[in-house]
């Protein structure tokens, strides 16, 4: 059985859990990370030298990096319905997954650490205001994309890209900052929330 190492509250671990639920992949999860077993042990760092979750073990195969993991799972476990085989369609999915992992992630970093984690090193008011503006700007990019598709990030159908992006939308709405009116993002959040697997893993079990 697939083994998933990482605490369930981690946004990157939740990508893996949600992907497994969408593709009906059985798994066993173990708590690793802050507040649980340390990722800086020799045992864990033999699996991931970056000392970060998630890590999966699929038989003898070990893999880290959350977006790479969910791509692997879709390829390994017949996930073509959400990760298309056709090159152009797959490239569109990869594009939005990579955008989430780079541009969008970077935009929220300071604001999230300040407002949610309450990090003492992230309490500069100017930096926080800048971070909130950057996060809003990137969510505006997503809003325009969702307005153009009318449904999901890559088109009319749910795809693998909606897993990292959908988790980012949850983080956006759950962070206590001023949220510009992005109706397409709001509709998307509600659309995703009709999926049982998103309610379970995308919204931390919240209805």
TrEMBL record:
Its EC number is 2.5.1.18
PROSITE patterns hit by this protein: GST_CTER, GST_NTER
Q: Which domain of life is it from?
A: Bacteria
All residue ranges annotated as the GST C-terminal domain in the record:
86-207
Q: Name one GO molecular function term.
A: glutathione transferase activity
Domain named GST N-terminal: which ranges?
1-81
- Keywords from the UniProt entry: Transferase
Q: State the similarity comment.
A: Belongs to the GST superfamily.
- Its name, as the record gives it, is Glutathione S-transferase GstB
Q: Which organism is it from?
A: Comamonas testosteroni
Q: Which gene encodes it?
A: gstB_4
């Amino acid at each position: 059985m697939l083994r998933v190492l990482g605490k369930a509250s981690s946004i990157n671990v939740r990508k893996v859990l949600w992907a497994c639920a969408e593709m009906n992949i059985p798994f066993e999860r173990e708590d690793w990370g802050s507040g649980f077993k340390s990722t800086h042990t020799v045992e864990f760092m033999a699996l991931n030298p970056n000392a970060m979750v998630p890590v999966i073990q699929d038989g003898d195969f070990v893999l880290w990096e959350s977006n790479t993991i969910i791509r692997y799972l879709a390829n390994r476990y017949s996930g073509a319905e959400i990760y298309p085989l056709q090159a152009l369609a797959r490239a569109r999915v990869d594009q939005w997954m990579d955008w989430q992992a780079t541009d969008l992630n970077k935009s929220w970093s300071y604001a999230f650490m300040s407002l949610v984690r309450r990090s003492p090193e992230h309490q500069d008011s100017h930096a926080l205001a800048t971070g909130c503006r950057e996060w809003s700007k990137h969510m505006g990019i997503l809003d325009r994309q969702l307005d153009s598709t009318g449904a999901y990030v890559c088109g009319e159908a749910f795809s693998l890209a909606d897993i990292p992006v959908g988790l980012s939308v949850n983080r956006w709405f759950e962070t206590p900052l001023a949220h510009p009116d992005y109706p397409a993002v709001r509709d998307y959040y509600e659309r995703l929330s009709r999926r049982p697997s998103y309610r379970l893993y995308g919204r931390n079990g919240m209805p």
